[in-house]
Amino acid sequence: MAQPPSPLEREWLWSALATVITARGEAPFLTAPILLPDDACFPDRWTPDAAGVQRLAKRLLAYAGLPQLEVDVEMFTGETDVREVGLDGRASATSHAGAAAWFAGIRNGRCQFGAETDQLGDPGGLVGAMAHEIAHAFRRTYRLEHRDREIEEKLTDVTTIYLGFGVLTTTASARFMTQHHANLGSSYSHKRQGYLAGEAMAFMLGSQLQVRGYDAETIRWYAKHLPANQAAALRASVRETSRELVANGLGFERAPDPSPLPERPRSWWRRLFG
């Protein structure tokens, strides 16, 4: 059974979210569209190459409120060392073994991203990875970065929730995948991305849905877009908290006015009977 984060961890997650809200305003957290991995949010044609990653990055930058930034993409394979810009503005050689994507800074208005070639066959995982890297670009742009690299990576996961990328990154935080291999049967694998556990990501996403004032049906609808474990963690987090408790944990003086409910595509049953 999925367990929400401990009380101490909840306080850290809420505090981290509150820091971003205080720095950049509450509007994105309360009103930005919560992106789903569908054609409505990502209408661009996907191609498993650098051009496809570039289009994906440009669209995510626009959602993050940074449409003015251009994108350069470098493809890499396996344990290729790449040049990364540190928080002091100096370049440093860093191995990205196992990374699906990376962010290497902003030069002359152009974001420098990399993507692992072998990940191009997993668009869902790549979208979650790029959402995280776009959050890095957001934090670099507004000078929100923490000097401790490990803490900064966790805060970047938090920032993806603030920007409305929570379904994408919560989904990618842990996935169980089955692959079929012609006459050789199938294989079962587990993938994990990001720096915060799936339960922590689901807790923050649930907090965002609650403080927006979304009803139970809407929250269940978002949960259906998550893998089973994260969906269960989101539902458990919502059961164990309340809108007022979340608002207080995030530093609001009172629960904000409810946000408009998102437009949802109607099922064939609703289309038929209204």
Tell me what the structure shows.
By secondary structure, the chain is α+β, with helices and mostly antiparallel strands. The chain has helices at residues 7-24, 27-31, 50-63, 123-141, 149-162, 166-172, 198-211, 216-223, 228-240, 243-249, 268-273; strands at residues 70-76, 81-85, 91-95, 101-107, 110-116, 175-180, 186-191. The model is unreliable at 79-85, 87-97, 175-192 and 269-274 (pLDDT under 50).
Structural domains: how many = 1
Distance N to C terminus? 36 Å
Instruction: Name the poorly predicted regions.
Output: 79-85, 87-97, 175-192, 269-274
Q: Order of strands side by side in the largest beta sheet? A: 1-5-4
Structural class: alpha+beta
Mean pLDDT score, rounded? 85
Continuous helix count: 11
Strand count, sense and barrel status of the largest sheet are: 3 strands, mixed
